[in-house]
Amino acid sequence: MQKRLVLDQQQIAIILKRFCFQLIENHDDFENTVILGLQPRGTLLMDKVVAQLEEISGVHVPSGYLDATFHRDDFRRRDFPLKANETKIDFLVEGKKVILIDDVLYKARSVRAAMDAMIAFGRPQKVELMVLVDRKYTRDYPILPDYCGVNVNTLDSQYVVVEWAGQGPEQDAVWITEKVNP
């Protein structure tokens, strides 16, 4: 399998810091803001952003994990059953500014499903989307990120793989991989 490096650990660190400063600029004191990481991979990015945001600003921002498995439009169309992940939200989103975080924005189906799932916790005042990688020109839904680390042009035969140190790889990295035909 061929791999092409898109972001290395240093570039990811710069993007995470930029995300934090953008959030500080746009959300003042975070009094009415909550952050939700989309299960499974958005939670890893969210944990990093929340930790760095608290370190930089000294403010605790309520955060949680949101699983949208049963809200997906392809839930019953698969040959194998999908496994749900934990939803861990101990606050209401009613009237709050919500920042949804995911690692890669591809077709936008997961984000659409996440917005449906989020409504179970109340009607937000505003919803923003933060992604590390935006796979441009691949949308099924007209959804764009408010905060984006990097835009990449990819083919349907390619995957974007986000690796986090501590989850197996030695360093944080983002790769584009191609399917290998047998």
UniProtKB/TrEMBL annotation:
PANTHER family: BIFUNCTIONAL PROTEIN PYRR
Glycosyltransferase found in the keyword field: yes
UniProt superkingdom: Bacteria
Organism encoding this protein: Algoriphagus confluentis
Pfam families: Pribosyltran
GO molecular function: glycosyltransferase activity
Protein name: Bifunctional pyr operon transcriptional regulator/uracil phosphoribosyltransferase PyrR
Alphabetically ordered keywords of this record: Glycosyltransferase, Transferase
InterPro entries: PRTase-like, PRTase_dom, PyrR_bifunctional
Keyword flag Nuclease: no
Domain (Phosphoribosyltransferase): residue spans on this chain: 6-153
Coiled coil, from the record: none
